[in-house]
Amino acid sequence: MGLDITPLDPADEPTFEAVQALRVAAEAVDVPDFPPPCPYVFRGELTHPLSYKRREWQVARLDGEVAGLLYLELPLRENQDNSDAEVTVHPAYRRRGVGRALHARAVERLRELGRKRYASVTTEALPGGSPRGDAGRHFATAMGAKSALDEVRRRLDLATVDEPELAALYAGAEAKATGYRLVSWVGPAPDEYAADVGYLDGRLVSDAPMGDLQWEAPQVDVARLREADAWVAACRYHIYSTGAVHEATGRMVALTALVRQHTAPWHAFQGITLVDPEHRGHRLGALVKVGNLRFTRGHEPALRMIDTWNAAVNQHMISINEAMGFRPADACVNWQQEV
């Protein structure tokens, strides 16, 4: 078997196209209800560096044909012992040793860089749900990874939304949120709220259930936030955000966002919803999520489906999502492996 693994050169257009085709083919098999991976996102990731994380890609060729891809995401400020890792093999080349070879290269590279562990994700079927292959779980356990956090993906089909129920959810949240007002925007956060948005964004790791994942909370200042905004623009993401402002202080204390790929106007991902701990108990999570859904639908008339993930133990956010109409689609397992 002639298997070669080499770094991906962003200027190598034929290889870029072959890798993008691999990504599309793999997604169509592994998560067939997702939109195809966006080429603009891939191009932006390849060509737009960030100061707080580095990305690396390695391409596996089997007898000269692009057969697999290794992706490493390496934090450069916090979490300098950690990495995210993703191994993707074209469906036509699976069970031929390509994944194992890429995993071995990942471990070798992470050790070179002094990293101690990586995290990765696989998708699985839920009982009674749509079929999903179990190759990801078998591969992860065979490589020695340990399950660290179970999540469930839920999908909102906007054609089935109970509009009176959604309106009642919003009205109930609004009644509890006296002293707060909503602010919505497209793209980068308004300057007056940028510091608050960065603070809330940095709370993700400390506020969301993380299971056994060993991960440090980032420190997101305005400069880092604006750097991320430039990357988002390079990837042509469309982002719609809504925050709750505490009127007595003028601070934004709750935040949510919906994100869609440029090539999939019918689909969006629900971003994390964050509420400052000092302002919980006012149903701000439900308020910003329903408010942002309304705001986004006003800008995206073709939007039909929204996907979100929650840790299986995050009952509070699950209850809000299910009240909005989100329904379970499949399971996701976060794996962690020491290297």
What does the largest sheet look like? 9 strands, mixed
Order of helices and strands: EHHEEEHEHEHEHHHEEEEHEHE
Helix content range:
25-40%
CATH class of the largest domain: Alpha Beta
Task: Say what the CATH topology of the largest domain is.
Answer: Aminopeptidase
Short structural summary:
The chain is α+β, with helices and mostly antiparallel strands.
Q: How does this structure look, described?
A:
The chain is an alpha+beta fold and 339 residues long. The protein has 2 domains: 113 residues, Gcn5-related N-acetyltransferase (GNAT) (Aminopeptidase); 178 residues, Aminopeptidase (3-Layer(aba) Sandwich). It contains 10 helices and 13 strands. The strands form 2 sheets. Strands 5, 6, 7, 8, 9, 10, 11, 12 and 13 form a 9-stranded mixed β-sheet that branches. A 4-stranded antiparallel β-sheet has the order 1-2-3-4, with helices on both faces. Strand 3 and strand 4 form a beta hairpin. The longest helix has 18 residues. It is globular.
